[in-house]
Amino acid sequence: MSHLKWITCGWPGLSRLWLTGQWTGLAVAAGFGVLFNAAIVFELQLSGQIHESFQQVIWLLVTGFWLGGLVDGAVITLGFRRQQEFQSQRNRTVVDTTDTVTVDSEGLANHTDGPNSDDYSDVNQEITGESSQTGSDDLFIQARNQYLKGHWITCETLIERALEEYPGDLETRLLRISLLRVTKRYEEALVDITQFQNWDEAEQWSFEVSREVELLQRILSRLDDTEVSKAA
Fold first, then answer.
1. Global pTM?
2. What's the average pLDDT block by block, 10 residues per block, for the chain (232 residues)?
3. Per-position DSSP letters for the chain, written without gaps between them
4. What's the pLDDT score for residue 118?
5. Where are the domains of the chain?
6. In this structure, which topology does domain 96-231 adopt according to CATH?
């Protein structure tokens, strides 16, 4: 079934629309359809009414458009498959959660047996020990492990390093939003969500983003109620 993704390369813009949900893909696909249909009409119905050189130009445009779309579709499909492989690798990674955190109904983290998140003394040592692997994917795995252990400072440092290497890693950006939420930096989390939604591939993460927005709204609503109660 994975090979069926390559079929989308046959029509310009379809790979962008089908695999990544980009609306630019719809515009490109529709534009090619209009140009292709115009070429057919000129060839079959208006062949005697327009100059032959004009028909050749139309077909050259169609061919160039199609070849460009074929290359673009191949690049998009390769990127999509690479992203799926990264996600599969991340999901298969065994996470050591000896020290874990629990998350309450409002998305706030509580330590079960982890170190103090404000303890800066061991941060450099932990990062040095865990950074023998290179690449944003390895950094994401390390950051996720630290997140699950409740090592917020180490987690954030690893996230920033991963985003420096690959700013388009949306899974790492989602992890950063979750980190900002559990560390009660709600305004920064909302700003990050707004920036996240500007990425073309953000549609693939719509469920996760909606969940983060829901948690933040619930927390902020609770804080507002608390302030009203205190004022009363």
1. 0.49
2. 72 82 84 90 74 82 92 84 62 46 50 42 44 61 91 93 86 93 92 88 83 90 79 66
3. -GGGGGGGGGSTTHHHHHHH--HHHHHHHHHHHHHHHHHHHHHHTSTTTS-HHHHHHHHHHHHHHHHHHHHHHHHHHHHHHHHHHHHHHHHHSPP--SS-EEE-TTS-EEESS---TT--TTHHHHHHHHTTS-SHHHHHHHHHHHHHHT-HHHHHHHHHHHHHH-TT-HHHHHHHHHHHHHTT-HHHHHHHHHHHTTSGGGGGGHHHHHHHHHHHHHHHHHHHHHHHHHH-
4. 43
5. 2-91, 96-231
6. 1.25.40
